[in-house]
Specification:
The complex is a heterodimer. By secondary structure, chain A is of the alpha+beta class. Chain A contains three helices and nine strands. In chain A, the strands form three sheets. Chain A has a four-stranded antiparallel beta sheet, with no helix packed on it. A three-stranded antiparallel beta sheet of chain A has the order 1-2-7, with no helix packed on it. In chain A, α2 packs antiparallel against α3. Chain B is mostly beta strands. In chain B, strands 4, 5, 8, 9 and 10 form a five-stranded antiparallel beta sheet that branches. Classes of the chains: A alpha+beta, B mainly beta. Chains A and B meet through β4, β5 and β7 of A and β1, β2 and β10 of B.
C-alpha cells in the first residue's frame, strides 16, 4: 500500500513537472511554446531601406487565443531584441482570433546581418510571453558603409567636405547615406557627428 | 528628535503623494465615456531606424449613441504626462453619427526610443463639453536600439 502510494506520488510529481515545463518539447524557441495562445505563423523578409540601412518587414499574422482567455500583449524580436512592443486595451482586450494591423514602416535592422524573427504573445492566462512562430531572414549587404557619403568605399574627411558641399553650396546629393547620425534627416548635425567621429574619437556613424 | 522624526515622515508622505503617475500604471486623465461608448485601442511602439521610433495603433471603431454626432477624438501618449500624438476633428456641418472608423495615418506616429508609454483614445460628441476616455492600452516600451 505504501509502495503504491509512493509510485502514485512519483507519477503525479513527474506529470506536474512535465506540465510546468512545456519548453522541454519546444525545440530551440527562446520562450516556451504556447498553452493558450496558439501558434501563429510569422512570415518576414529584410529589405534595403537606404543605401546603408535595412528594415525587416513582417506579413500580417493572426493570433488565436483559446476560449476564456484574452490577448494582452505581443512582441516581435530580432535576434532576441524587441523591435515591436504591443499591448492591447486594458478594458477590452481581444478574444478569439485577432489580426493586428501591420505597422506602416519596417523594423530597423542592420544590413548584412541574419536575423531570427520571433513572434511572441501573451494572454490573460499566461505568466510570461510564449513563442508563437519564428523565421530567419538575411538582410542584404549595404551598398555603402554608413558615413561613406561620397560613395568611394571609405569613411574619411572627403565625406565631411562632400556633406558640407551638399548642405551649404548646392553640391550633389549624397551617394551613400548622408544621415550619419541616424536621425532620419540629413542636416548640419551629420557634419558635426562625422567630424566628431573622425577627429575627436566620437561614436561611429549609426 | 521627535520633531526630526515627524519632519521625516512628512517628507516621505509628501514624496509619495506627489509622485507622478507612472507609465507603468495607466490612468488616463479624462473620465470614461458616457455617450460615446468605449472603443478599445490596441497599439505599441517599434523602431524604424537609429534613434527613430514610431507608435502604431490598430484601427478602432468609435461608437456614438443615437441622436449625437462625433465631434473629435485624439490619441494621447502617456509617460508621466500626456502628449497628444493625433488630434482629429470631423466635418463641422456633417459630423458622423453611429459607428465611425477613422483611417490610419500613413507613417504612424513619432515616438521616443527607449521610453515607456501607454496610449489613450479620447473622444467627444456634440453633447459633451470635455473629452472622454474611450480606451487605454497596457504599457509598452519603445525599443532603445537597432537589434
Amino acid at each position: 500500500m505504501r509502495t503504491g502510494q509512493g509510485f502514485r506520488a512519483f507519477g503525479v510529481a513527474l506529470a506536474t513537472a512535465l506540465l510546468l515545463q512545456p519548453s522541454a518539447f519546444a525545440g530551440t524557441a527562446t520562450t516556451p511554446m504556447q498553452p493558450n495562445v496558439f501558434a501563429s505563423p510569422i512570415h518576414a523578409g529584410c529589405k534595403t531601406f537606404t543605401a546603408s540601412r535595412c528594415q525587416v518587414w513582417a506579413d500580417p499574422f493572426t493570433i488565436s487565443v483559446a476560449a476564456g482567455n484574452r490577448l494582452t500583449a505581443l512582441r516581435i524580436t530580432l535576434n532576441g531584441v524587441t523591435a515591436y512592443d504591443y499591448k492591447t486595451d486594458l478594458s477590452n482586450p481581444p478574444v478569439g482570433n485577432y489580426t493586428p494591423s501591420p505597422v506602416k514602416l519596417g523594423f530597423a535592422a542592420r544590413c548584412g546581418v541574419t536575423y531570427t524573427v520571433n513572434l511572441q504573445g501573451r494572454d490573460s492566462g499566461d505568466a510570461t510571453f510564449l513563442s508563437l512562430g519564428s523565421t530567419t531572414v538575411a538582410c542584404p549587404a549595404p551598398t555603402y558603409l554608413i558615413g561613406d557619403v561620397n560613395g568611394d568605399g571609405v569613411v574619411n574627411v572627403s565625406d565631411v567636405f562632400y556633406l558640407i558641399n551638399f548642405l551649404f553650396a548646392g553640391g550633389p546629393e549624397p551617394i551613400g547615406d548622408g544621415d550619419v547620425n541616424g536621425s532620419g534627416d540629413v542636416t548640419v548635425s551629420d557634419v558635426f557627428y562625422l567630424v566628431n567621429d573622425l577627429f575627436a574619437g566620437g561614436p561611429a556613424p549609426v | 528628535m521627535n520633531r526630526i522624526l515627524v519632519l521625516l515622515v512628512l517628507a516621505v508622505a509628501l514624496m509619495v503623494s506627489g509622485a507622478p503617475v507612472s507609465a507603468q500604471e495607466p490612468q488616463a486623465g479624462p473620465p470614461n465615456a458616457a455617450t460615446i461608448f468605449a472603443s478599445p485601442i490596441h497599439g505599441g511602439c517599434y523602431i524604424v531606424g537609429p534613434n527613430q521610433c514610431r507608435f502604431h495603433a490598430d484601427p478602432f471603431l468609435i461608437n456614438i449613441s443615437s441622436g449625437v454626432h462625433l465631434v473629435a477624438f485624439r490619441i494621447v501618449a502617456y509617460t508621466t504626462l500626456g502628449t497628444t500624438i493625433y488630434d482629429f476633428r470631423t466635418d463641422v456641418s456633417n459630423p458622423p453619427a453611429g459607428n465611425y472608423t477613422p483611417s490610419l495615418p500613413a507613417e504612424d506616429y513619432a515616438a521616443r526610443c527607449g521610453v515607456t508609454y501607454y496610449l489613450n483614445l479620447q473622444g467627444k460628441d456634440d453633447s459633451n463639453v470635455n473629452y472622454y476616455s474611450l480606451g487605454v492600452t497596457g504599457t509598452f516600451t519603445c525599443p532603445a536600439a537597432v537589434p
